[in-house]
Amino acid sequence: MSKFRAGVLYGPELVAVYEDAKANGYALPGVNAVGTSTVNGILETAAKVQSPVIVQLSFGGGHFYAGKSLANDNLQASAAGCLSAAHHVHQLAEMYGVSAILHTDHCSLANIAWVDHLIEYQEDYYAKFGKPLFSSHMLDLSEESLEENISICERYLERLSKIEVGLEIELGITGGEEDGVDNSQVDSSKLYTHPSEVYYAYERLSKISDNFTIAAAFGNVHGVYRPGNVKLSVEILKNSQNFVADEIGETGTKPVSFVFHGGSGSSQEDIRRAIDYGVIKMNLDTDMQWAFCAGLRDYFDEHKDYVATQIGNPDGDDLPNKKYYDPRKMLRQSEEYFITRLEESFADLNCVGRNI
């Protein structure tokens, strides 16, 4: 019998998964999806390794899912694409036998309309069906002051709690560039969060709900860089965890559920240390994009003489090439590469066999 229910988890189920991760020393991959091929690849991998998984979408990924030709002046297409993906996961997660967590990635104050659309839809959905579509949403208000960041997060957590949806917040800035947000030139001091800031957020939010996670900055950067170019200070998580535990009178525990952003290219050593300090989720995007791309690259390299024309190949001038340029063939190879790479991440995160 599985430890967690197959399907999309929410409310107390989400908290239970994260507490289990902290208690048993593993973290879940939070994998960015942009279409059905990547969503299905995530679910297929989770089924293979018999562990829960997080399917997440950015506002850019949501727009692509809906269709790039759609107007998105009020981020309505971003929201529509995310809702379509959510229904897709709800439809298929049980068939795969997977415990899935549905999540939206970085949302700045400038893009808050995107999450507002999603919450409004889910409030109506919850009233009809008694459950939300998403497990959690993320607000990345790290460009605002700490006080403004947490004040806004409090308001959203109050609202989300009523429909059993969790909240992920960001303290400090994740460097690099992702989905059109460029922090590559940010002051390096903002890449590192102070333990007192973590406690400030924890103390305020825990008065509302226990269904929140914190993406604290410890030098992590979106993208992949040559070894030595990114300076991680994983000890920040340890110090922050200890600081919060001491302040609430629970010394020696791990009250905070941390999120590791910018995880692509990180060493297994840093990943495992972060898990030891309370990381229950690590975001994956860049490495997964590369794996998917490599599948297409190798497909066209292997079959270049069969996709150059519709008719005629090295086996005969009159032979058709339809079975080679069928999109399902090339996309399936990309899915397979994606799945192989994601299995490696599950192993790095000590997240294999966690739903048995």
Describe the structure.
This protein is of the alpha/beta class. The chain has a single domain (7-348), classed as TIM Barrel (Alpha-Beta Barrel). The chain has 12 helices and 13 strands. It is globular, with a radius of gyration of 21 Å.
pLDDT < 50 runs, ≥5 residues: 180-189, 222-230
**Which range does the strand content fall in?**
15-25%
Provide the residue-averaged pLDDT. Answer: 92
Distance between the termini: 7 Å
**Per the principal axes of the C-alpha atoms, what is the gross shape?**
globular
What is the level-2 CATH architecture name? Alpha-Beta Barrel
What's the main sheet like?
9 strands, parallel
Q: Give the helix/strand class.
A: alpha/beta
List the main descriptive attributes of the protein structure presented here.
nine-stranded parallel β-sheet; alpha/beta; two-stranded antiparallel ribbon; TIM Barrel; 356 residues
Task: Set down the secondary structure blueprint.
Layout: E1 7-8, H1 12-24, E2 28-32, H2 36-49, E3 53-57, H3 59-66, H4 76-96, E4 99-104, H5 112-129, E5 136-139, H6 146-161, E6 166-171, E7 176-178, E8 181-183, H7 195-205, E9 212-216, H8 235-247, E10 258-260, H9 268-276, E11 279-284, H10 286-302, E12 311-313, E13 316-320, H11 322-325, H12 327-348
Parallel strand pairs: 1-4, 2-3, 2-11, 3-4, 4-5, 5-6, 6-9, 10-11
Antiparallel strand pairs: 7-8, 12-13
Helix pairs in contact: 2-4, 2-12, 3-4, 4-5, 6-7, 7-8, 10-12
Give a short synopsis of this structure:
The protein is of the alpha/beta class. The protein has helices spanning 12-24, 36-49, 59-66, 76-96, 112-129, 146-161, 195-205, 235-247, 268-276, 286-302, 322-325, 327-348, and strands at 7-8, 28-32, 53-57, 99-104, 136-139, 166-171, 176-178, 181-183, 212-216, 258-260, 279-284, 311-313, 316-320. A hairpin with a 2-residue loop joins strand 12 (311-313) and strand 13.
